[in-house]
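Re-running the complex after MR caught last week's input typo. The corrected sequence lines follow. Everything else is unchanged.
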Amino acid sequence: MNLPDRARVTTFVAVEPTEAFAIFTEEIDQWWKRGRRFRFGGQGTLRFEGGRLVETLASGGEFEVGRVLVWEPGARLVFEWRGTNFAVDEITEVEVRFEGMNDGTQVMLEHRGFSKLRPDHPARHGLLDQAFTDMMGRWWGELAMAYRNHVANKAQPPLA
Amino acid sequence: MSSEVPAGWPRISSALFYDDAPAAIDWLGRAFGFVTRLKVEGDDGSIVHSELEYEEGLIMVGSTARGTDGRKSPRSIDGANTQSLFIYVADIEAHYARAKAAGAKIVAELETKNYGDEHWVDRGYAAVDCEGHHWWFAQRMSTSKKQTA
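Corrected-run output:
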């Protein structure tokens, strides 16, 4: 059985690729939605640190989402992705590409490797066909809009 | 009960269906100047969800292969339409040139319509997109003195 493998989201932000990349990575804890549906430990702080994406948990512990595989400021970012209910050898991958377009940046995020998750994996919530990758796409879609809104709010000139 | 509209959403927005929705999203950007603020693609590349902005206007573009709501592309039903879209733009000449260059089929040439001294003057055109949806674009040239008084 060939399980669907990837979900992709695209958004557009009205800043240059270098800035779009910097905001995506350096301000990830500010734009990434909060709460149990979006954060790994629920209440933690998310950041890229020491070549990894980690969430520092409210309990003081730490959850490593994955190692950074490619770090090309203004162009491309690739990191591994493990959910809290993934086995040690279950690793998926997220690639984010930043391309200059119309005085801004088109940001394309692809999360791939879902076909490696066994059919009864808890992360699937019982979804085997494309419904699972659709669900992941919608989840990333909410995050992409949160990122876009964060960039737009920053771009507002300060109040006089 | 709340009548609140979420930030970034107009109260009314339309979803348009295309057989090749990813190509239509690119085309609408190229020809009409829409900005894809969100595009969610499934494993097969079809569109799970999309949001395209034109200034404060918003449409969604979906794949006909998805959904159980009887969606069809006009091109699969001899160009039939059950709606057309009307959009005010800031520079109708530039918009017309852009649409034409991108291959939009012009079905009503640029024309200034004066509705009389007590009404308004619009300059606009009509075009058919890559799969047969009908669009009207117009620029408001003047509003009657009575209306603005």
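None of the earlier attempt is carried over here. The CA atoms of residues 114 and 121 of chain B lie 4 Å apart. The longest strand of chain B covers residues 105-114.
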